[in-house]
Amino acid sequence: MSPTDVDRVDGVTYIDDPSDPRFDDYRELNSIAVRAEMEGDTYFMGEGYVPIDRMLDSGHRMRSVLLHPKRLNRFVPTMSQPEMAGVPVYVAEQEVLAEVVGFNMYRPCLASAFRAPMPTVSELATSCHRLVVLEALNDDQNVGAIARAARAFGIDGMVISPTCNDPYQRRTVRVSMGEILHIPVARASAGDWPGALHTLHDAGFETWALTPDPAAVNLWDMAVPDRVAALLGAEGHGLELATMEAASDRVRIPISPNVDSLNVGHAAAVTFAVIGRPGPAD
Known about the structure:
By secondary structure, the protein is α/β, with parallel strands linked by helices. It has 2 domains: 5-114, CATH 3.30.1330.30; 121-275, Alpha/beta knot, CATH 3.40.1280. The chain contains 10 helices and 12 strands. The chain has helices at 32-39, 49-57, 69-79, 94-101, 121-127, 140-152, 170-175, 196-202, 241-246, 264-275, and strands at residues 12-14, 43-47, 62-67, 89-91, 109-114, 130-135, 157-160, 185-187, 206-210, 217-218, 228-233, 249-252. Helix 6 (140-152) links the parallel strand 6 (130-135) and strand 7 (157-160). It starts with 11 loop residues before the first strand and ends in a 7-residue tail after the last helix.
């Protein structure tokens, strides 16, 4: 049942039919394959108040918002922002929302926004000084955690390999608390990997390939150059040999011998903190 007239808010559209085409952006949220085909290069999803706020202040143009009635009151002030002008806000009851998204998502707060064109690797190489490079990461939550840490420690761009996850998956945006939307991301082409590292080298970057190899240089002993890119591979497999060989340096984070390894998100945060540490004159 839709909310009563007493509960209604001006500027909000209440919908009680799960088949309504205005819900189409929000269907089958748990299927990565279906979502990839639906979204393509056109739009992406945000989930939660903070990620939606970050969608708005990142300059991405909004398509629509979908809320559970219990989420509406907190969202009403956001509706007055200039970026929300003309953006439809839909509200539906829990049973309708569950049928739309494909599972019983608890009191969802969702939004869709248009994707902006990605910069090229060459463009990032000339405009950034601190980069993170991700090879074949297949866990959207790890990508989100890395993006959040990158923003926290002053990393100003991200390069991803051709086989890396979509950086704008819903879970990635959520785990990053929307910070992924404030980092320019360039995806290297299939024919330019790991050749994209040479593009960075030509622009004056040193590239640090993170590895647990005991023969690698201790991270704490590395002098941080003016331009540096930290290379991170997928959990378990790590960086490909060709990528390691193309990097300027192989770098390890010294950890207790009683611990096998760090999660890639944790390793990224430690590395970013070292890269961003103040110099003697700061």
